[in-house]
Each structure stands twice: as structure tokens, then as C-alpha cells.
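Make up an example, fold above all:
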Amino acid sequence: MVPFYMLEWYVPDVAPGGKIAYFVALYITESVLNSGVTLAHRTLVMHISDDSSDRESAIAFRSACGLIGMVVGVAVEGQIVVAFDGSLSGTCNHSNGSVNRTGSNITSTSPLQTGRQEVGYLVAAGIICLLALIFATITLTTVKERTAFLQEKTAEPLRRSLKRLMTHKPSVCTFLLSLCFFLATHTFQQSLALYVQYSLGLGSQVQNCLLALVGSCLIGIPVFMVLMTKFGKKPVSVGNILVLIPIVLGLLFVPGRNLVFALLLLAIFGMTYSLLFILPWMMLSDMSDILKLQTGRSYHTLLHGVLSTAQRITGAIAFGAISAALAIGGYESGDCAQPESVGRAIRWNVTMLPITSLVLSLMVLWQYPITEGMRQRTKESLEQIRTTSEDGLREERKTKSDDNAADKISENVRRKQDRDGLENFGFSV
């Protein structure tokens, strides 16, 4: 996957239609390779431990590292591009001369500066690729997978496995809840920069707003881990959504060019927003244990594959909704200044779509059948099965070891008899 990141800066000298086809082919290939990497590293969490509590801690840690990686990636690329006299905002058309609608002066970008900016992006891409290779090497050489307890070895057709998941009420509820959460998170993630720039008029503060959001998310993840351990997933999820809905609605009324108020609201939003990152994957861990107990088979790879596909689908829906909002608002691509209707359209998109998703998630949670008592009973049953399986394996190894020892003794006796010229007259060892 890493070389494809470098190819994004190579565009063949062809007609515009050919360039579009090049980028389509590039991004399709990159997306396919990125579903493979995502599925592998998320499924790996299920092999770290047989204890669901350990897996949930690993899921929270992985989500936190993902947020940190996002910030580090943006910081590395931004600082390097700026160091090469580049600008993250790129070039734009000055429809109002040399002064935009906010009254600030705008200078054009020279070909030399554009060339240095391209070099900056290439250097940033190379450094990010190097970091990705280092972290992938560490994962491959240090992480050890655990084998699951004894299960059925017979292969099950994919169609039958999918049918089993789609007719399993806890799994269906988990998928629907994940769709609602993913749609809310993707909508806000993809709209944050536009919201800060055009709705709040704080285009120069996008980085600070992003840090406020991600920093509060990192703080919120361990807080929610403690709360879910004490009160359970379902009660904490319902309470969090009921608090999150009015906070999201408040994004519609944030006054423009008020950095302090925007940072405060985004920090509060990030605290409650962090649960949406970790809850779907933790519920997936529960589903894997329940299916393992009911069927004797492990479905975690298929569960993660279906959920990762749902994540990509909701990302595409969120992108389409943002594009529609920009079109309704009258967004002009490449212009330095945009009409106020663009900011209003983004405000409505960043609030109404997530709120709708959160309300639907409450309806799904109402039907979610897994309780903390059921989770605990499932955990105890799996532990009992695992202990029985391990005892059986030890007995089997012991029996084989005893048989091998007897065979070895017999062989030694026969060799001694051969050396002494004796025969075995019916005496067995």
C-alpha cells in the first residue's frame, strides 16, 4: 500500500479525461489495499487474548493510537509543506481582485513556489511511508497471535456464514448501530475543516480546532472505558447519546469568528464523541464470543469484514451529503471567497445528519438484546470450554508421550537383545 501514496503526486501528461481515469484507478487500487490492511490489523486484536476485557482494552488503545496517528500525519505533512514555502490551502482564483470578502490581502502563487510546494508534498509522503514501514515491521516482529480454543474444523461456505450473521439478532443490531455511528462520525470528520473555515470564519485555526477535538477524544476514551466497566455498555451508550445530541445541535448556533467558544464546544463535543469510535468494535467482540459459544466456530474475521465494508459505505454516503450541501450552498471550486450560503449549508449538514443518525441509534439500542449478565455468562462458559479443551489436549499429549516412551523402551530392549544374541520369548516391555 505504501508506494501508492507516492504515486498520488505523479499525474501522466494526458487529456483531462485521462487524468480523471488515472486517479479513479489509483484510488480504487489504494482503497482495496487499504480494506486488506484495515481488516488485518483490526482482526488481530481478537487474537491478542481470549479474555474479552483484554480485547476491549486493546480496542480502546488501538482507537487512541489511530487518533494520534491522524494528528501526527497532519502535523508532519503540514510542517514540511510549509517549510518548503508551500501553503496547505493551495492556489485559488481571485474573483474579487486581490482582496477577498473578509478584507484580507491575497497574493498569487508563483510557478517556483508551486514547484517547491510539490517537493514538500513528496518529502512529506516519503517520511510518512517510512514511518508506516517502521510501525508495520514492529507489528510483524513483536506481536504474537494466540490460537483460539478447539472449534469445528469443517469449512462453512461464505454464503451460509453471512446468512447466519444476518439472521442473528445481536449481530444485526450491532451492524445497524455501527452504521448509525459511522455515518455520524464520517459526516463530522469530513466536514470539520469546511465547518471551521466557512461556517465559523476561522480558516487559519483549523489545526487548533482539530487538536482540541482529537485531544478531548483521547481523554474521553479511558473515561468511557471506566464507565462501561462499571455500568455496562448499553446504559453508558444511551446516556452518552442523550448528552451528545444537544451538543451536536449547538454546532448550528456557534457564533462566527469566536475562537474561544468554538474550541470550548469542540472540546466538550470530543469528550462525548469519543465513544462512537470504540463502541462498535467492542460490541463486535461480544458478538464474536456469543457466536463462538453457540456454534463452536470463530466468526471474528467475517464480522470485521462486514463492519469495515459498512464503514466504507457510510463514508461514501457522508461524502455525497457534503458534496450536495456545498452544491446547494453555491460553492465555487477554486474561489478564495465563498458566499455565506455555503457556511449555512455546512452548518445544517454537520448537525442534522449526525443528529438523525444518533436518534436512529437510540432506537437500535432499545432492541439490543445483550446485557452485562449475558456477557458475563458467555465469558464464563467460554472459559470453561477453553479449560476443558486445554485439559483434553494435555491428556492427549500425555498419552502420546507415554506411548512414545514405551515404544522407545521396546526399541532399546530389542537392540540390546540383538547385540547379546538373545531372542524375546514372548516377554513384553
DSSP finds 13 helices and no strands in the chain. The mean pLDDT is 77. The first helix runs from residue 2 to 7. Residues 86 and 117 are 4 Å apart (CA to CA).
